[in-house]
Amino acid sequence: MLVSRSCAKRLLASAGRAARYSSTGTSQLNSVTEQDIEYFSKILPKTSIISTLAPISSPSDELNSFNSDWMGRFHGRSTTVLKPKTTRQVSEILKWCNERRIGVVPQGGNTGLVGGSVPVHDEVIISLSNMNNVRNYDPVSGVLVADAGCILQSLTDYVAPHNHIMPIDLGAKGSCHIGGNVATNAGGLRLLRYGSLHGSVLGLEVVLPDGSILDQLTTLRKDNTGYDLKQLFIGAEGTLGVITGVSILTPPQPQASNNVILSLPSFDNVLPLYQTVKRQLSEILSAFEFIDRTAYNLAVKHGQGRALPESETVGAECFILVETSGGRREHDSEKLLDLLESLLGADKPLINSGVLSQSPAEFSSLWALREGVTEAVSKEGKAYKYDISVPLASFKQVVDDTREHLRSKGLLHDKAVKYVLGYGHVGDGNLHLNIVADAYLPEITDALEPYIYEVVASHRGSISAEHGIGAMKTHALHYSKSDVSIELMKKIKAVFDPKGIMNPGKVLE
Ligand SMILES: O=C(O)CC[C@@H](O)C(=O)O
Ligand SMILES: [Zn+2]
After folding, report:
1. Are 15 and 31 in contact, with CB atoms under 8 Å apart?
2. pLDDT tens-digit profile of 411-444?
3. What are the residue ranges spanned by the domains of the chain?
4. What is the predicted ipTM?
């Protein structure tokens, strides 16, 4: 139900003003009041509002999962979650919040790793989970238009009968939303083959903080008409507006997918191996993923995938998962077998052994060893997650140096930190450096930061290769962005969101 302008004005005038300073330091933001809930309940059915405030008054534990990230590292104090079903409803909510200066946090599947989708204070959470319809699919062009709240896996299932796949794939696919993927510019396991979302996303529908709807939901492959505004929202982490619809190009399903896990005696072999694999598999190579020994052991310990036969892992310092996706089943398998033969038959073999999947179940099981590292780590304790781009050659050095650094501070093993491990997307130059401890402790954070960011900056790398900045890295943005860049980002933010209501405390300080 839409609320009339006069009704909105009346409610605005009567609304209480529990003002406080926002985390961005740029504007006064207000807390939600009972009058706001009264207004929201004119826009949304009561079942789509979770609030501890009258006249809804849901139990506060219902709010907990929306206020915390899945790692239990970031916590907000929102009193109110709104679950709109339509773009128009999102627009009405934002218009109201903008006029009232109420902070807003858009939330998808809440699977992020940098605290981007939970409030810093008591912002209203707009959950996109009720906006979960496919709007249109053209199996000829492969262009899919979907609500932002569609779960990635359900979209993968939707396009599968049409012999297409989604251009992204990530461990959280069973719960992450396509809108969240776009808002965070999620990378994932298919980036090597299909590139980033900046290329696959053709159009977006975005509700701006003042409630206006930016309809750029084009399905065109070519549209060279000046500034490509949608690119600004890809990776903006909800700081410029709420993405409500996504138009995305889905690639044809490869006819044949194979994978193999190679065990390597030394990390030094990773780079020559990558060169060899690229040369021999050329266009059918679709993933080249790295798992160090610690990461592998944890994945196995926590039952992610099936452990490789013991004999194949003896003496392995690290593992590489190679995937091929091509158009000719026999040809592709032969290419992979030829690769294995030539690697193992070399005078100085780069690998100890390789385990090739022989069935769809084995294919998934090998992937689970890699995809499941995050899950395994979460079962071990609290993880400090650094998601960095550094030259491939320094992946191992960075992990080893971090371990030694923690040891020198007396924090390793006997004192809180249990593991330091590395894994990630070698093909994309992206290392996931995880430090696993018993708890999130200030002395560990102090030992890790700015240490890791300085290492990254010394390589002219990125402090966030794919997970974003969220609330976790706002203070460190300058390690990867120049002053000029940050000033421009702030100006862009001010143009779209002059009152600073959108996802305050994220991306920019
Ligand atoms: O948990 C992490 O640090 C990485 C998660 C994800 O980006 C992955 O590549 O598995
Ligand atoms: Zn990753």
Report:
1. no
2. 997 668 999 999 999 989 999 999 999 999 999 9
3. 5-130, 134-249, 256-373, 381-467
4. 0.99
* Ligand 1 pocket, residue 422 CB under 6 Å: no
Segments of 164-218 assigned E as strands: 201-207, 213-216
Contacts of residue 105, Cβ cutoff 8 Å, sequence gap at least 6 = 76, 78, 117, 118, 119, 123, 124, 125, 126, 238, 503
Assigned token pair, 356: 């090739």
Digit-coded pLDDT (tens) for 338-385: 999 999 999 999 999 999 999 999 999 999 999 999 999 999 999 999
- CB of residue 374 inside a 6 A radius of ligand 1: yes
| CB neighbourhood size of 87 (10 A) | 20
Closest ligand to Cα 172? 1
Fold held by 5-130: 3.30.43
pTM for this predicted structure: 0.94
Ligand 1 neighbourhood includes 385 CB (under 6 angstroms): yes
Neighbours of 489 (CB within 10 A): 17
Q: Is the Cβ–Cβ distance between 44 and 89 less than 8 Å?
A: yes
Beta-carbon neighbour count of residue 299 at 10 Å? 25
